[in-house]
Amino acid sequence: MVDLEKSKYAPKAEALFREGYNCSQSVVLAFADKYDIDFDTAAKVSSSFGGGLGRLREICGCVSGMSMALGLIQGYSSPKDTAGKANQYKLVQELAAAFKQENGSYICRELLFGITDDTNPTPEARTKEYYEKRPCPKLCAMAAAILEEKLGL
To answer: For labelling alongside 133, which of 7, 83, 112, 127 has CA 20 to 30 A away?
Structure first.
């Protein structure tokens, strides 16, 4: 079980989500001090993955964000690096499994407790009611804490 209280990155990810970034961006941007692309570029690269990939409600954007941050921190770049590729895929699978163990799923529509068919591309306004009905801020925190723990950051 991941301890959110001990995490340096969990509060950053949650705060970024509450600031208005999507779930994927929030996790990626929480680790901005760990890689060498600028904040704006990281926000743009991760912007399409919110809401389970463009609000399709598929793989949770937090899990996508964890995977992107992992790649930026210690990914491989050579197409010939088969060992690096295998290791990266292994780590992604371990991260996704840890997220699922903590939250019961890594599928967006399953995590949203009944919000299963809202794929309208226009995001909802970030109101008090929005935050009361969604687990997303805490899921962002959880994803960041899982990645932090896995990498020993």
So the answer is: 7
